[in-house]
Structures are given as structure tokens and as C-alpha cells.
Amino acid sequence: GHTDHVKDEL
Amino acid sequence: MNLFRLFGDLSHLASIFILLHKIRTTRSCRGISFKTQALYVAVFVSRYLDILWEWVSLYNFVMKVFFIASSCFILYLMKMKYRPTHDPSIDTFRVEFLVGPCALLALIFNYKFTFTEVLWSLSIFLESLAILPQLFMLQRTGEAETITTHYLAALGAYRALYIPNWIYRYFSEGVVDPIAVTAGLVQTALYADFFYVYFTTVIQGQKFELPA
Asked: What are B176-181's contacts with CB under 8 Å, separation 24+?
């Protein structure tokens, strides 16, 4: 799902 | 991590050090918009506090702590230490006209209607428009100290470098973040005329002056 979308960016 | 994003983050880091250097050497925050700096605190606090419950990497953690701490420190310098040099009469951008629409956008455009995801979208939208009070102040005064223009150039380059990063990640990892990309394009577009003046004056060694 989208909730784990790339959150590794600042 | 790719070079575009690394240099983007380093450019963002550099912008903070340039701003701190400017405040310390000129012992003033003249020409700096308090409202923009306050918006950045809101942006970082609302997006980077996820370090309290999520671990991405040491780099991610250290950078988030640094940006939250440094942006708060800058507010302290402007509001306390160098308060006499802060002229609120030229920092007139109505921030409520910026926060309102961003909040509305965040309620509409988010990846999941949860508190943290809506807050993340709000932070992304706010960051894209946070530079407006600073640009309005620049427009109003018509000129800026050279070091302030270097601060703005580094700050503008940060998210501009995220654009090739997003393109790279799309082709290499097949992932894309439409909310971050849209906001990042708007954020970079806002710097367009600043960069034009910056590269045609300051880089030629002249003083930064907006056409009257």
C-alpha cells in the first residue's frame, strides 16, 4: 500500500 | 541514496551553516524573514518527529535531529539574541493565507487519512511555500546582502536537486512520490526568478539587486 511509500527521504 | 539527493541534503545543510555564519558575522538577522524561519520549524517538527517511532537510518536520524535543532536555534537567535536587528514591519507576508490552504490540501491529498500521514502531507506542502515570506521581503527591500543570497541559493538548490533524485528513483526503483514531487516542483519554481538574478548578478561579482 501507499502508506509505506518512500519515507526514507528528508 | 543517490548523489542527487545526497548533494541536495548537503546543500540544505550548507544553507543552514551559511545563515548561521551570516547572523554571527554581521551580528544581525537583517534581511532574513522570521516568518519563513518559523515556517521551517513547523515543517521540520511536523515531518521529522517520526524519528521518535520510526528508524530509517543513522543518516536520516542525524539529519532530522540537526534540522529540527538548527531551525529552532535560528528562531532563538532572531527572537532573542539579535532581536533588535529584526524588523517585523517588512516581514509582512500573511502566513495564515499559506497555512490554511496547505492544511486543506493535506486533508485532500495524503497517502492515508491518518494523523501522521495528513501531518506529513501538510509538512510537504508547507515546505514548498515556506520561502514566500522571505521572497516577499526580498522584493520589498529590492536588494539583499551577498551572503543572504548564497543562503537562498543553497536553500533553493536543496529541493531542486531532489528533482533529478525523483527521476533517478523512478527509473531505477520504479517508485515515485506524487505529493513530494508536485510540492518539490512548486518549491523549486518559486526560486526561478531569484536564481535568474543570482546567476546574472552575484555570480558576476555584482551586488544582488532586483530590477526596480
From this structure: B177/A5, B177/A6, B177/A9, B179/B109, B179/B110, B179/B111, B179/B121, B179/B124, B180/A6, B180/A9, B180/B124
Rounded mean pLDDT, B5-27 = 98
**B156-192 pLDDT per residue, tens:** 999 999 999 999 999 999 999 999 999 999 999 999 9
ipTM of this predicted complex? 0.86
The model's confidence at residue A3, banded by pLDDT at 50, 70 and 90, is very low
d(CA B19, CA B21): 5
- Cβ–Cβ of B64/A10 closer than 8 Å? yes
Q: According to the model, what pLDDT value does residue B85 have?
A: 87
Put simply, whether B57 touches A (Cβ < 8 Å) is yes
- Phi and psi for B164 in degrees, rounded to 5? -60, -30
Across the interface, whether the CB atoms of A9 and B64 are under 8 A apart is answered no
Residue B40 has pLDDT above 70, yes or no: yes
A5 near B CB under 8 A: yes
